[in-house]
Amino acid sequence: MYRQAVWDEPILKHLSREGRVGYSLPPLDSEFKSKIEDLADLVPEKMRRDKEPNLPQLSEPEVLRHYVRLSQMNFGIDVGMYPLGSCTMKYNPKVSQRICRDPRIAYLHPYQSESTVQGILEILYELEHMLSEIAGVSSFSLQPAAGAQGEYVGALMMKHYLQDSGFGNKNEMLVPDSAHGTNPASAAMAGFKVVKIPSSEKGTVSVEAVKRLVNQNTAGMMLTVPNTLGIFESDIVEVSKQVHDAGGLMYYDGANMNALLGRVRPGDMGFDVVHINVHKTFATPHGGGGPGAGPVGVVSKLAPYLPVPRIIKRDDGYSLDYQAEKTIGPIKSFYGNIAVLLRAYCYILSLGREGLKTVSEQAVLASNYLLSLLNKSSYKPTTSEGIPAKHEFVVSASPLKRRTGVSAGEVAKAILDFGMHSPTTYFPLIVSEALMIEPTETETLENIEAYADVLNSIASSSEQEKEQIMASPHNTSVGRLDEYHASHPGSMILSWKELDQTEKT
Ligand SMILES: *Cc1c(COP(=O)(O)O)cnc(C)c1O
Fold it and tell me: How far apart are the C-alpha atoms of 261 and 278, rounded to whole Å?
């Protein structure tokens, strides 16, 4: 007969038994005890506990099993393939993790005096210069905590620069319809009116539309290259000329530099501002909301506007300078998400100049190989014949849905049963039933082939096994979630509160 296993308990508190302990400490000697009591006197009366904390009482193995079990319910890049297009879930070298945990790094505190943190300042200073070289711009700030914040900082700098140059009237930002949602949001937050640019037949930005929409109010354009369809914007030079001729500035969304590392540089393509998501392009575990880092770089005319503090190198060492006259000000406490930046530094140094070129080469190869293996009568490519994809590609599951009723979302759920993560679904918005796939440079041929097999077999079995697909996933730690309630405030209970005696009875 089935009995609920003890380990089905989701909360340690429920496993607690009076008197069970998971540690052994020597008894408190009286001298130490009185010291603790003296310390307690320093805490104001109203902030002191009136009863002991009600902690669960458990043995060590129970606690250990609980946390190991939780970790096994999770899926991550260290468990299986995770080709989440646009988000770039690439392997994170463990050596970087180890360096971040080094006590000489991990125990640094932002309030330490500058003379005691010369090492990390030197690392960050060097990283700024490496990113400037990779992006072909003059200077970088590492402060922004995410791509979206980098965009906001970039848009604000553009605004201040235009105002100082006597073009305060320029208030329109051009954004292609294939852009990541953060682009129009950041531009709007910086006070710009967002002008949508439609894509051409090829899936790239339409030069005709840019010509039509550029005018004396154009402040600039935000462009993602390769765009979110994974296609290189082949008309960049022409587009950027149009915007520059009208006195506007070009913003490069480099959240994903994976296809271009060591090959072409945004600065050389005519961009004035660029952000790079180091948590995508330069590894770093991320997801579930962070932490990340979205350093932002600029050509020299915009450098005075970068956020403060700036890291300055003098003969006697490194220091943080808060004095820049034209700065847009600080935008993040201290100097950004240092641990994320440090991983990017390790990743860049461990690969070197040639290694970074190999990253882009293999990322693009992997993506095109996977695309070539897919059954096109179910998954329709969005790249035109003869135009290769970059580090990611988008297919539409519309043909599959029309034939069998199985949608991109259902395919994504079914993939989970094979111990793999699904692609990004329903983005970009301009493709119906979109599946956006980015295998990354770190997957083997066999893994890429296995992923294609899974997608193709879901498609080929979607008529006979439709019911099973529609009810998937079956093999994961939680089954199909209620997506409506999961995304509505107030309907998900994420905290636990012990009932007091009166509520219990
Ligand atoms: C991820 C991404 C962003 C936003 O970056 P966050 O760090 O999530 O704020 C912007 N643009 C593109 C193209 C992206 O892929």
Answer: 12
